[in-house]
Amino acid sequence: MCGKYSLADGAGGFVKHPAITTIAQLETYLAGIPKGTRGIKKARRALRLMHDNSWSPMETVTAMLLAMPRRMGGFGLPSPRLNRRIELDQSSSQVGGQENVYVDLLWPDAKFGIEYNGEAYHRNTSRDLRRELTLRKAQLDIVTLGIQQVRDQVQFREVVSQAAEHLGVKLRHATPLIAKKRTKLLAALLPHGTVQRNGSVCFPKPPWSLPAKIAQSWT
User: Fold this and answer.
1) Are 206 and 15 a contacting pair, CB within 8 Å?
2) Which DSSP letter does residue 98 get?
């Protein structure tokens, strides 16, 4: 609802479109619902786990794994800003050939971000290297990951460790119960058998998904 895509018929199992609403608008809406209304507490709990401005299901999955509470299988990091636009100074703009860049998951104060690469085996090397140089010139430390890093707990833990170091967060040791919850959460967010040969993820169409023609017609 707050992202710029919907699960729908089409390549990859989703289509892009403008966001339907925002977290702030939903908070205002829920504030006007009387206490004791059926489902209101669950809706407010869910709202605390949401993120604005996601552009793909995997960006949503990555953000949830990082920021959800430990008791629910996440790592409890501060929530990142998704697809935040960074205005480049003149020297960085000259390197990148553009006036601004977008970072998938960004913690602006820490100057740290995570980029999800949805096509691990068909990258435009020249473009990606230029982008990396531009971000470094802008003094942003960026870690890039793909589906294999998300699925593998050891690799993902390393990404989390780097994020925690930049954010000044001390990670707690994962107990067997927490590790089990993380495996369960990942299985719920990322169904098995959805990884394509090019490294991207195709999400299965849920019963409530939209026909692509309808989703793409939204403005």
Assistant:
1) no
2) S
Burial string for 110-119 (b: 16+ CB within 10 Å, else e) reads bebbbbbbbe
- Cβ–Cβ < 8 Å for 167, 78: yes
Instruction: Tell me whether residue 135 is exposed, middle or buried, using C-beta atoms within 10 angstroms of its C-beta: 0 to 12, 13 to 18, 19 or more.
Output: buried
Closest CA to 198 of 115, 116, 122, 117: 122
114 with 156: CB under 8 angstroms?
no
Query: Which helix (DSSP H) or strand (DSSP E) does residue 103 occupy?
Result: strand 100-107
Q: Which helix (H) or strand (E) holds 14?
A: strand 14-16
pLDDT in tens, 11-33: 667 888 889 899 999 999 999 99
Question: Can you give the pTM of this predicted structure?
Answer: 0.87
Positive or negative torsion for Cα 194, 199, 202, 203: positive
What's the CA gap between 187 and 184, in Å, rounded? 5
